[in-house]
Amino acid sequence: MTYVNKGSVLAVGILFIILGVLAVGARFYVRRTKAGYGIDDWLCLPALVLVIGECCIFIVGSATNSIGSHNDPNLGLGAITYKGTDQVTLEELEFPFDLMSLVALALLKLVILFFYRRIFRGRGFNIASWTLMGIVVAWAVAFFIAKLAACGNSIRTNFDTLGKLKEKCVNTFTLLVCLTVFDVVVDLAIMILPIPLIWSLQMATKRKIAVTFTFLVGAFRAIACGITRMVHFAKLLGPKLFSQPTVFDLLTTDNIGIVSLLMFWGMLELGVAMVAVCLPTLMPLFHGWTVENFFHSLRTFFSLESLSLRRSARSSSSKRHQKMDSETSLAKEDFGYPRQPNSHQAYAMGPIDSQHTDAEKVPGGSVWVNSKLTQTVET
Questions:
Q1: pTM for this structure?
Q2: Which H/E stretch holds residue 185?
Q3: Cα–Cα distance between 123 and 374 in angstroms, integer?
């Protein structure tokens, strides 16, 4: 058993429908309120339709016990001539899946390139971007036709046994490996394209790093899935496939399990790429939450925590000192009353009589203290 099973296939199919719709919906919301729609935005719509179609294939495959299932391990080499319902259903789902994923990946690559063209200018960039667009279109058309015509005029042969496929069709294994290698090479070229332009801008190094990170974070995840997919294709469909008993914890005679694994990584690459191409346009939703600001916020948080602790310690120390002073001396403050020049304060242990002849002369807001006091001693 591997991580590719009916449960994981169903989960991935549902997950990428939700994520894809949310990402594209948020993209159109931001564009409507900010910069307006462009070619890159409109290309997202057919790409999303294809991604949803691929997800539906996964849901159907899980429900029909085809994608995510396995051949009977007792079949052995009999798997080459096996034509059970699960095998035929899997091949009927795999064929449109491969064609749709090829078109969807090409559209997503064009989305990124047209997005770059909204930001960057220059003769050199124009040549490089248009050249890459031409390569992407040529790649998609060439492999689409090659996949469609792999078995000649008989499309139905694509749904036959593995033995019939090897007999009547071209070597589709080599075709699929070349497709994934070229896919990764083009993705790397697209990812690298804006980096020299970003670093030629007149801005601080920290800002350049933050902008570069924003551009690459989504693309890197998609390329990581693409590279993993390429490795799986090369190892599962390579010439040494039947020279070893197992590969990636699967029996080399488990055709259903192998095809399910390849489709699973194809779906991961496509779903992640759908979300990744929308990430750079969604930055206004985060209101300045860049990598640079994130680390600045962390530094500010810990600085405030440290300052708060120091203030708390000083406050506790000050309260202790005030308590000690109040217990050992009389109050030294005048409690808000203005002290008159040459005024006197007196304290006594008994009743005090004073002359009030000048009481009417006391100015408002002041306290008058006579300098002549008498003390009566009670007996």
A1: 0.71
A2: helix 172-192
A3: 103
CA distance 62 to 56: 10
| Among 234, 249, 239, residue whose Cα is nearest residue 73 | 249
Q: Which residues pair with 352 in a beta bridge?
A: 375
The DSSP secondary-structure symbol of 281 reads G
- Percentage, residues of the chain above pLDDT 70: 70
> Tens of pLDDT along 46-89?
999 999 999 999 999 999 988 988 887 777 677 777 778 888 89
Q: CA angle, 90 as apex, 62 and 256 as ends, to 5°?
A: 90
pLDDT tens-place string over residues 308-348 = 555 555 665 555 555 544 443 433 334 334 444 444 444 44
Residue 278: φ, ψ to 5°: -90, -20
- In 3-state terms the chain splits into helix, strand, coil percentages (rounded to 5) of 70, 5, 30
Give SS3 for 374. Answer: strand
d(CA 369, CA 61): 99
Residue bearing tokens 């896919």: 183
CA 118 to chain centroid: 22
Asked if pLDDT for residue 91 goes beyond 50, the answer is: yes
Distance CA 43, CA 118 (A): 14
Whether residue 141 contacts residue 167, with contact meaning beta carbons closer than 8 Å, is answered with no
